[in-house]
Amino acid sequence: AFKGPSAPPSSFPTASSLRIGIVHARWNTECIAPLVKGAVQAMKKAGVKEENIVVESVPGSWELPAGTQRLITAGQVQASSNVDDLMGATSLLDDGGNADASSQSSSKASRAAFDAVISIGVLIKGSTMHFEYIAQSCCEGLMRVGLDTGTPVILGVLTCLTEEQALQRSGVGEGAGVHNHGEDWGTAAVEMAEKCNR
Ligand SMILES: O=Nc1c(NC[C@H](O)[C@H](O)[C@H](O)CO)[nH]c(=O)[nH]c1=O
Fold first, then answer.
1. CB 3.0–4.6 Å: which of 8, 19, 64, 83 could bond 52 by disulfide?
2. Residue 92: CB within 6 Å of ligand 1?
3. Best residue for ligand 1 mutational test, from 36, 62, 155 (most atoms within 8 Å of Cβ)
4. For residues 141 and 65, is the Cβ–Cβ distance under 8 A?
C-alpha cells in the first residue's frame, strides 16, 4: 500500500540553530502525549536542540489555529522584545506547575522567532456532526495561519472515525498499521524550517 512521506532529506545542516514550536490540544491525551513525544524525538534526532523546542497547549483542536497564530506572532514579538510569557498556557508534558524542562526551555528559548510550528490534535468521530465541523475549520485555519504568517505550520491533526484508528496512528498498541505519525511531523517541521528560512 502507498504509505507516508518518502525520502526526507538525508541531513539537516542548520537543525542545531532552528527553533520549533509545538501547540497541542488537550483532548484524547492518551494519543496526544505519544504524538508530542514522537515529534520531539524525531526533531532531536535531526539535530534540533531540546531547549529550542517550545511546547504549549490549548483546550481542543478548535483552538489550534488561534493558539498557533499566537505562538508564531508572540515568538516574533519576543525575538525583538524578549517578553518571556508566550501564551501563559500549560503544556500537557508539564507535571502541573513544576517548572520542568519544557516550561524552563520555553522561557529560556524564547529569544527568537519560530522557524516552524507543529499543531497537534486528535479528533475522534462521535455521534454528531461536531467532528466534521471542527476538523474542516481546524485544518483550513491552520493552512491559513501558515500562509499568512510565512512560518511553516505542520498539520498534526488526526481525524479518526474510531479510538483504535487514533491509537494506531499515535504509535500505541499492536498490529501492522501501528506508526507514530508525530515522528513524521517532527521531520517535516525541520525540513520546512530549513527550506522556508533560506
Ligand atoms: O468534540 N470532540 C473533540 C474536541 N472538541 C473540543 C473543541 O476542539 C473545542 O475545544 C471546544 O468546542 C471549545 O471551543 N476537540 C478535540 O481536540 N478532539 C475532539 O475529538
1. 19
2. no
3. 62
4. yes
Task: Say if residues 109 and 51 touch (Cβ distance below 8 Å).
Answer: yes
What are the pLDDT tens digits along the chain (198 aa)? 667 778 889 999 999 999 999 999 999 999 999 999 999 999 999 999 999 999 999 999 999 999 999 999 988 776 665 444 444 444 555 444 333 444 444 444 445 799 999 999 999 999 888 899 999 999 999 999 999 999 999 999 999 999 999 999 999 977 888 999 999 999 999 999 999 986
Determine the Cα–Cα distance for residues 27 and 3; give it in Å rounded to an integer: 27
Separation of 122 CA from ligand 1 center, angstroms? Answer: 9
133 lines ligand 1 (CB under 6 A): no
CA of 134 to the centre of ligand 1 (A): 7
Dihedral of CA atoms 160, 135, 140, 15 in degrees, nearest 10, equals -50
Q: Identify the sign of the CA torsion 50, 52, 56, 60.
A: negative
